[in-house]
Amino acid sequence: MAVLFSDLNRRKKKWLVFVKVLSIWNNPPKHPNDQTIMILVDETRQRIDATVPTIAIKRNFPRELREGHWYLLSEFDVIPPSLPERNSDHFYQISCNRNTEVDPVRPKSQSEFFNCVDFFSINNASKEDKQFVV
């Protein structure tokens, strides 16, 4: 049964979650040691960072992951955040592996999931607010 990002923890190894790709970088990776980086969102608007090593892209991913599209993501690792520049404030990060599978699905929501932030809030951000990209 599919879960939400709020259910993710490090104790369990087999996960199934519906995700929308908000942003994706370095897809496909240009060098063997590179990784694809994504911002994913679930149907409750919660975001999480995700990384995909080249080996996972070549094995089980659709030929083209696309921003704005929904997927069923399974068999991934839940790890502490490891990216130097975080794109979400989620307590964990998704790390895809050679067993991760990604299957296109119908949209779970029509929302674009944008979080608009006014300039004053950005200019006067607290230290905690500056820990991830807006």
UniProtKB/TrEMBL annotation:
InterPro entries: NA-bd_OB-fold, RFA1B/D_OB_1st. Coiled coil: none annotated. This is Predicted protein. It comes from Arabidopsis lyrata subsp. lyrata. Residues 6-104 form the Replication protein A 70 kDa DNA-binding subunit B/D first OB fold domain. The lineage of its organism: Eukaryota, Viridiplantae, Streptophyta, Embryophyta, Tracheophyta. Pfam families: DUF223.
